[in-house]
Design a protein that fits this description.
- The protein is α/β, with parallel strands linked by helices and about 100 residues long.
- The protein has helices at about 30-35, 60-75, 90-99; strands at about 5-10, 10-15, 40-45, 80-85.
- Strands 1-3-2-4 form a four-stranded mixed sheet, covered by helices on one side.
- α1 (about 30-35) links the parallel β2 (about 10-15) and β3 (about 40-45).
- α2 (about 60-75) crosses α3 (about 90-99).
- The longest helix has 15 residues, at about 60-75.
- It starts with a strand and ends with a helix.
């Protein structure tokens, strides 16, 4: 699965996790503001935005946590903040438990 992600800003890392019926653009306004002090990492969860592939069959929380963690490892090697919305909160909470 090819997960779309992007990064901007400087400072402590913040990973954003969007909910249902949105994509990484959901946090656009707050990313613009927070990137003055933080490194903002945004991504499209599997099946959303630019992370859509025709043959996705597994949308489980476990798999989405693994996707988010892979994005996080790509940009950060230290503890980060996670900013989540709606169903993204489930992913964020499970990440906190697992990692």
């Amino acid at each position: 699965m090819n997960i779309y992600s992007k990064i901007c800003g400087n400072g402590t890392c913040v990973l954003t996790v969007h909910g249902i019926i949105s994509d990484h653009n959901f946090f656009e306004g707050i990313i613009k503001y927070l990137s003055r002090q933080y490194t903002m990492i945004s991504f499209d969860r599997r099946g959303y935005g630019k992370s859509v592939e025709e043959l996705i069959s597994d949308y489980s929380v476990k798999v989405q946590v693994e996707d988010a963690y892979e994005v996080l490892k790509k940009y950060a090697d230290e503890p980060v903040y996670i900013l989540a919305h709606s169903a993204g909160c489930v992913i964020a909470l499970e990440m906190a438990i697992c990692y």
